[in-house]
Amino acid sequence: MRTSIPLALLFTAGLLAGAAAAQEKGNADAAKMQNPVAPSTESIAAGKEAYDRNCRFCHSADGTGGPPKDAGFPEASNLVDETWDYGSTDGEIYTVIRKGTPPEFAMEPWDDRLDETETWNLVNYLRALAKGAK
Ligand code: HEC
Description:
It is a single chain. The protein has helices spanning about 5-25, 30, 40-55, 55-60, 90-100, 115-134. The chain is mostly helical. It is globular, with a radius of gyration of 18 Å. It has a single domain (about 25-134), classed as Cytochrome Bc1 Complex, Chain D, domain 2, CATH 1.10.760.10. Heme C (HEC) binds near residues 74, 77, 86, 96 and 97.
C-alpha cells in the first residue's frame, strides 16, 4: 500500500498536466469576450444562412464535420459535440471563425468575408444546432 499514494499523486499530476495541455489551444483573451448579439430567432436564421453558404461544405449540414477537403488538412471539426479544440466559449468560437487556426490555417480566417454581426450570428446558430443535436 505504501506505493499507492505516490502513484495516485503521479496519476493526478498527469491528469492536471493533460488538462493544462488540452486548454493550451484555447484563447484566454477571446474567452473574455461577451457575445453582443442575442440569440434571437432572427440571429439564428441569419446564422443558418451564412453557415449553409460558407461552412456546410466542410462541416456538413448537421455540423458533425467530415473528411478533409484538401490533402494534408485535418478533418473538419464536429461543431455540435462537446469537444472544442480551440475553446468552447462564444468568444473563442467567434475568434476561430474570424482568425482561423494558425499556423496551417486548415480552418481559414473569415474576417475578410463576414462582418462581426454575421460571425456572432454563426456562433448563435452553432449553439442552436448543437442543442438540436442532443
Ligand atoms: C475548407 C473547409 C472548411 C470550411 C469552409 C470551414 N471550416 Fe471550420 N474547420 C475546418 C477544419 C479542417 C477545422 C479544424 C482546424 C484545425 O484543427 O486546425 C475547422 C475548425 C473549425 C472550428 C474550431 C472547432 C473546435 O473544435 O474548436 C470552428 C468553430 C469552425 N471550424 C467553424 C467554421 C465556420 C463557422 C465556418 C463557416 C464560416 C467554417 N468553419 C468553414 C474546415 C473548414
